[in-house]
Amino acid sequence: MSHRLGVDIGGTFTDFALVDDQSGALAVHKQLTTPADPSQCVLAGLAALLARTGTDIAELTTIAHGTTLVTNAVIERKGAVTGMLVTEGFRDVLDIAMERRYDLFDLRLHFAEPVVPRRLRLEIAERVMFDGAIGAPIDEAAVGQAVTRLVEEHGIEALAVCFLHSYADPSHEERAREIANTLYPDLRVTTSNEVLPFMREYERWTTTTINAYVQPLTDRYLDHLESGLAEMGFQGRLLVMTSSGGMATPPLARRFPVRLVESGPAAGALMAAFLGRQVGAPDLLSFDMGGTTAKGALIRDNRALRRYEFEIAREHGFKQGSGLPLRIPVIDMIEIGAGGGSIAAVDDTNLLAVGPQSAGADPGPACYRRGGTRATLTDANVALGYLVPDAFLGGEMELDAGAASDALARDVASALDVEVPRAAWGVHEVINEDVARAFRVHASEIGFDYRRCAMVAFGGSGPAHAMRVARKLRIPKVIFPVGAGVMSAIGLLTVPISFATLRSGDARLETLDAAGLEAGFAPVERQARSLLEAAGLPLDGITLERRLDMRFYGQGHEVEVTLPDGTSPARLGELFLAAYAKAFAVTPLDAGIEIVNWKIEANGPDPDFAERYHPFAGPSGGDPVARRVRVFDPTSGDYVDCPVYDRYALPAGTTIEGPALIQENEATTVLGTGERLEVDSFGNLVATFADGEI
Question: Would you list the domain boundaries of the chain?
């Protein structure tokens, strides 16, 4: 057993990366996603890749898996019927939410509906105070009656137990769980203190209800996948990527499925950080663009930035504040509805709009010839000559250039009264500007100057757009890694098993001693260690990283502070002031400091991947120029002759001047006029602009 497999399920394609841990050889594959049951494309793609490489499934030690299942279930509202038990008097917290308008002047505001409707929220007489004192005992009889009513009258499959201040004392929630499990052993019960022992009840309860809402679906999916793999003869370990950039075992994923939100995109960001360490670029902008969405993540000092908040299922123009907030550890990234399947149309104001609606894998873009008729970004790239129809996916899937042009003529060109090439370029450029605008906002919010760093571009569509996006952002260098089209799947192979968690608990810095510091971290460390030990990791193989959320006393929000090993209470003030000054440039002089949340990130050992990984055996020795095609050149406004280079025939040190296409099986890199690239010693394409171009 010497092989490991990474599988990333996207909205349009599912990507596979198979690495031989002995030789370091890598094989990749793309398969159209099956939205109705994603496990089908996983099993079919695995069989195809094993057959192509001559690998026996018995040689697989690990399958590392990233999925959009949880995200899609919440957005499409395809989760389980879920009930909720709440503290008496707090039934409407999910509707009251933050009482915040995300746009002060828009009279058409829409907010995401809670996944548990009001009729399925029942109140229980009980009360835990903010300091953990019991204000009123739990009414156990009322709990039993409420659970029975929810199951018998409403047919719930899952139950969320959300009581006030359970982070301070979880006993009432745990007793309610015991009662529910005694009455209905098959009922899936989630308690808020287990999912998120966090002091702000609205975010804690939305996170808990979503965890319960997707738990039955996740159970069924993993059961189906595990049984299908077992039938194929797989005897290794199945791991699932979490949003925080770590791996979870299936039992852990079943217990906390809310942590699978954004699991696939997180792997791409971590792979970009891995690549940055490899090439000596500590600060990067990661640009991942696939068939449905585009994702951007910022890499600082070789680490992907993380945060403990995320918003899902935004309802109104994808604006922040219109969705459901989750308090889970996630890789800090921006995601917009821009991908190869993004549908192009002329709106009511006679302006061209592309996305966020997507043709996906079924029916797909018009050029796929799978029933899709709407013009998409992929159709525009075919019409522009940036995708060679008979070489798509290494020739395994031929595109219909005529269908692409017909769709663009019907949906865009006729409405704007322009020729098809101009319409196609408009679609291409609208997406470039949308992506650049989103990245500008995201970087400015955290003070990241991307003009001083490089961009790593990957995904099935990313290399076709990266140079135009970089030009708009004034980023001087773009790196296209080998296997760019499946880089998230490759990234899954670099990630250890891990678990990150937090617990709320106030502590004033002036009264905190060493014993108090250790006592604050103790329950969080116990939970993280026990979960990783249950996953089969030896105790001496687990490393812990401590963080604190701190603030000046009386402030409403906090700043995260990372604690180096052996940090004493005396150093906490110094570390907090440095973190605060980095975020806000100034610090108050005479204000007390308090700790709000205690955080732990527990990691197992890193997979043995970095030293042995090589994406292909070396240049094929064939003619680097595979063919010549006509592509649209925006500088002249017309089609020009363009060489198509075979990525696998380019030795290190090769330089290419644009316009040119560099083609590999899973993606095509578009190099424009005034742009050049060089193949580095790792096989990456490193592209730059001519002097004065940006």
Answer: 3-74+219-236, 78-210, 342-428, 499-603
Q: H-helix or E-strand containing 634?
A: none
- For residues 397-414, give the mean pLDDT: 93
End-to-end CA distance of the chain: give it in Å, rounded.
50
Q: Which of 136, 124, 121, 116 is nearest to 88 (CA)?
A: 124
- Cβ 175 vs Cβ 145: under 8 Å: no
Contacts of 329 (CB under 8 A, 6+ apart): 242, 243, 244, 259, 306, 307, 308, 500, 501, 601
Length of the chain: 694
d(CA 152, CA 81): 12
| Burial group, residue 369, by CB count within 10 angstroms (0-12, 13-18, 19+) | middle
- Could you check whether 3-74+219-236 and 499-603 share the same CATH topology? no
CA geometry: angle 358, 79, 149, nearest 5 deg: 155
Looking at domain 3-74+219-236, which of 3.40.50.300, 3.40.50.2300, 3.10.20.90, 3.30.420.40 is its CATH number? 3.30.420.40
> Global pTM?
0.83
153 class by beta-carbon count within 10 Å (0-12 exposed, 13-18 middle, 19+ buried): exposed
Note the CATH architecture for domain 499-603.
2-Layer Sandwich (3.30)
Residue (of 362, 300, 357) closest to 332 by Cα position? 300
**What is the DSSP code string of 109-177?**
---PPPSS-GGGEEEE--EE-TTS-EEE---HHHHHHHHHHHHHHH--SEEEEE-TTTTT--HHHHHHH
Contact 361, 30 (CB under 8 A): no
pLDDT band (50, 70, 90) for residue 317 = low
For residue 307, the surrounding DSSP H or E stretch is strand 306-307
Q: How confident is the model at residue 120 (pLDDT cuts 50, 70, 90)?
A: very high
The token duo for 376 is 């998409």
Q: Is the peptide bond before 356 cis (omega within 30 degrees of 0)?
A: yes
pLDDT 10s digits, 93-114: 999 988 878 778 877 777 888 9
Pick the CATH number of 78-210 from 3.40.1360, 3.90.930, 1.10.3470, 3.30.870: 3.40.1360
| Interatomic CA distance for residues 427 and 447, integer angstroms | 30
